[in-house]
Here is the input.
Amino acid sequence: MNDSEIIARLTQRDETVLEEAAKQYGGSCRALALRLLRDPRDAEECVNDAMLRLWDTVPPAQPESMYAYLSTIVRNLACDRLRSKSRLKRGGDSVSLALDELADCLPSGDSTEAELDSRELGRAIEAFLDAQTKERRIIFMQRYWAMMSVREIAQRYQLRENTVKSTLKRMRDRLADYLKKEGFL
Here is the structure.
């Protein structure tokens, strides 16, 4: 079943389409949630919550890519759950490590003004990524959006871990320079 068929059935409020969407995209969404949460039960709950959110938001939303739409929902739910858990217990984990890597090249979000500028910052990062090669962009997004480990990225794209590490380091440095030039840092 393709994305437009899924959307059409959601628009018709056909509940059985959720099973189809879960069959088609559940595995990828579960893997994403698991990378973030490191707990299979929490990951499964995020996927189930994402299916409910899909039901609640389509219509009116008409996503072009069901995978992109669902994975964004799953990622946001997993990040919310992770924030909630980290409030309860502080500690280092791989997600925190990935986000800490980016901390030096992103502006602080401590002020109200910074919150208002977050959309502009998002557009600036998008423009920066658009100017990168496809390979660099993929590596960057896999690390900082999908929260894959350096080892996972290296294995998936048949690269050496040092190549992935150095690519990420150079991109963070370039991103910091770019954001300074654009007035964000």
In short: The first helix runs from residue 3 to 11.
